[in-house]
Sequence to fold (281 residues):
Amino acid sequence: MSAKKKLLVVTDLDGSLLDDSYSWEAARPALHCLKTLGIPLVLNSSKTISEMKDLAHRMGTFAPMVAENGGLLAVPQESGLLDQPKTFQRMGSDWIQITGLSRDFILSRAHALREAQGYLFEGFADWSDAMVAEHTGLSSGAASCAQSRYATEPILWEDTLARRKAFEGSLAKDGIRLLQGGRFLHLMGPADKASGTVAVKALYQRAMPDVEWLVVALGDSQNDQAMLEVANIAVVIPHADGPHISPQAPRVLNASMPATAGWNEAVLTIIKDEIGASALK
Ligand SMILES: [Mg+2]
Fold:
């Protein structure tokens, strides 16, 4: 790889860098390598920024984060990427930008439709932290982090499928889309994990215009497909159940093991191929 080329690693969390017990222990060798080589590690997840911030700190990454499925971009001051962040607002030690629609706007439209049409659904905005904990199985501290959202709203739909389609059609007029997660239906704007990836790459490109950034993206599920397709190197992390995704990218690498262990193996392989085996020493 020429001196002007640098790797930029963008990763999904659950089922990719994190295993079933939310541990990344098995990825320590690769994370250590990224840090030693100064390769940025960008977390890109459906989680909220409060949830991701804690993980990023413990992993020791100060790169930008893409939260809430692309709806929010957070740039830590420590990254040094933003000097005059006109379109960002300050939140703690981060600059944040809502890249999709704001949660306030989404809630105002969804709740007005519920009022007018009598749709049966409940969401995080209707619940206390204790109720969020009850509905999600999270601890109360974690539920409070999951509540601090800016660009998406998870709801439980309790009405018919036909009425859900009508609700979806009405929201679409305002640019709001519905994404089925595990149990929850997520109301969100047009931004996604792919647009978040492109935005982060642009920040690096602007800060270091001479560098040719080679994006490595890692993901395991359908909502990672578009993110993998804007990367130069796409890594598919397999899982035991559910369909395997097949992204189109200049280079596609299928990890041979699920979650964290597969993530570790794939990142070390890419470093070896792109930088050289000496980088692993
Ligand atoms: Mg995942």
About this structure: Residues 177 and 188 are 5 Å apart (CA to CA).
